[in-house]
UniProtKB/TrEMBL annotation, chains A, B, C, D:
The chain crosses the membrane at residues 12-32, 52-70, 91-111, 117-138, 159-176, 182-199. Keywords: Ion channel, Ion transport, Membrane, Potassium, Potassium channel, Potassium transport, Transmembrane, Transmembrane helix, Transport. It is a multi-pass membrane protein. InterPro entries: TMEM175-like. GO terms for cellular component: membrane. This is DUF1211 domain-containing protein. It comes from Dyella telluris. GO terms for molecular function: potassium channel activity; proton channel activity. Belongs to the TMEM175 family.
Length: 212, 212, 212, 212
């Protein structure tokens, strides 16, 4: 058990490192203006032109941050892991590592449809992979014994919040590229909604399960 | 308790990784001169031209280093954490991740007012967020039982040192852009001052608290 | 023993960090197109032109991921390490750190022979070094006592899978540059084949060893 | 004690992360050639032109690797740490983080004197700071009780090996820029020499100390 715990810790560690590197690399894609003047107006204009990059940086920082917080929460519920979590987790990390590119593509070409579709599509892929990782990870033998089963089940459901919001954003990107990102503000709502749905559904099923 | 400790460790770990990446990425923004000569004078001139970049690298390395040392000290005082520390900490990490940009903006445009304001403003934001994180983290149920309460309270106060120095630097950037960074040398003084103030204030209040 | 375990952990940790950084840096070499239009067709064309970069990113992510998964598996079988594992492991990390360059060289110059040879050669070097690291690491005093000796021996054999596939890919790069990468799809087959070979060979030898 | 151990672990961790990032960032400074041909000769020529960059990458990888191996060895001898190790260690990490710049400066301008001086000077600074960190860290109350005192003392001496070789290389850079790096091959010799010197000196002093 102890060696499984240490292997789980290392998997967690590697994932954390990729999250941390991707989130910090976001700033590299914001190009530093180099002006040959000391005129305040010129700098304000240059920073103004970078506004889409700043917004992309902040948005992606929060999104990768939220992915990490969820990963942190779920892996904290485990005492062991199935080998079948390894590759879905690796693919999740691949989408996370792709985020600096998707962010820079969107920020360098503001309000253009294809970049917005690529960005929302990356989020959708990350969300679906995260949902898959959590579904595989949160299975009975691997979960801490002291956790309520309905909380575990609802945590699996809650992972549908991000892909739901990302799917909406993807659709909206077609009609209102750029503005569609506002829909990502609904992520916290969707997450709570799916958690509540999962909780209710499990609690309705539990008596049935207990009887059988 | 043990699983909380491991979750705290992972939060600490993720934060450490972002600090470490941001501090190491600083050097990427220093552009390597490529000369087609072997003349010593040409190289000395090229390095001379990079002096603001070297100073920005060193300054930001020390500032991020100080932020990390403080984070390391405070999180070492904890045995558990409140979920409400998660997002202020994430925003603190966002300002840390933003530092390579702010540094390069300042270094590429030496003595210009707007870049200096952006740099000092980033430090001020980082300082205030750090103060907030520490205030949320250093609450009774989460702090190690063996620590003196007045030391804990004074550690909360001490976090006001960086934002105070950064606020001064921000003001001075308006009047003497570039030179204002010298005020950051006062950070160690302010930190000690606020620690002493916090200690004295807590010790004056303690008898009152003990009586009540 | 405990301090050896912590030294092993730190070696593992450092290796994990290099794997994680190299895998995440891959995306930096994919250059973000910056178009002055909102025309969908122009963006699709620009992304089309980046297809070799996307494929290189995905391929190298999976290869470095597989190297890490193997490293994770083998180091999880250890309780201690020999000092002689240190430098072969450092050289393995050097080839891993070189992967972003080899990937970008191949992706920026698709279907060219020399870049494909460099890429396959880097993989071959990484595979041989990994095999060497595992052969040194998986020796009796360092391996967990609860592991079956034939599984340990077969795990050493299994590390021949990657260099075998990389050698094939290197050969094929000469005749069909670009297409040779398809041979890397055989890595999972080779890995299983060598594991089975190693298992069979060890089991045939074991009675002899037990008698002696 | 346990919380000191965990604080020491986190300091070690942060240091490891900076070492790992700096060592992996080295490859970013090797610029990927992008040719519009499939002619083998053109690629071989382009790679030939990158030879100084490859050699700089390999040299700095080995040097940072050696710095990390030494750091790993010495911190593995500790059970606790003095607060006064914090800032010398941070300055050591600053020189490590500076290495990608120094390497690229040297590689982009091969055989030029000033870049070689900068590179050798960076190594000298790193070596002296490492020696300082180890001297502060390896003091009685912080060192594991089971270690022989003369081995601890000799480990402090051994840290003089890198700065000695770097000082020689710095001198030689003036007269034979480029070739001076060959002197870095003497690092392993110097390290062993200083270790032996330290061992002999401590063993000669020990009877005296034991009597007093």
């Amino acid at each position: 058990m102890s060696s499984n715990a240490s292997q789980l810790e290392r998997l967690t560690f590697f994932s954390d490192a990729v999250f941390a590197i991707a989130i910090t690399l976001l700033i590299i894609e914001v190009h530093v203006p180099h002006l040959e003047t000391r005129d305040d107006g010129a700098y304000l204009q240059a920073l103004q032109a970078l506004q889409p990059s700043f917004m992309g940086f902040a948005l992606s920082f929060l999104v990768i941050g939220a992915l990490w917080v969820a990963h942190h929460r779920v892996f904290g519920m485990l005492v062991d892991y199935s080998a079948s979590v390894m590759w879905p987790n690796m693919l999740l990390l691949m989408t996370v590592a792709f985020m600096p590119f998707a962010t820079a593509l969107m920020s360098s070409n503001p309000m253009a449809r294809v970049p917005e579709l690529v960005y929302a599509g990356t989020l959708l892929a990350a969300g679906l992979l995260q949902w898959r990782v959590f579904a595989v990870a949160l299975r009975p033998p691997f979960v801490r014994a002291d956790l309520a089963p309905d909380h575990v089940a609802a945590t699996r459901w809650r992972a549908l919040g991000l892909p739901a919001a990302a799917a909406l954003s993807l659709l909206a990107a077609w009609f209102a590229p750029g503005w569609n990102n506002l829909l990502l503000l609904t992520i916290p709502l969707f997450v709570r909604l799916f958690y509540a749905l999962g909780l209710r559904r499990t609690q309705r099923l539990q008596p049935v399960l207990a009887e059988s």
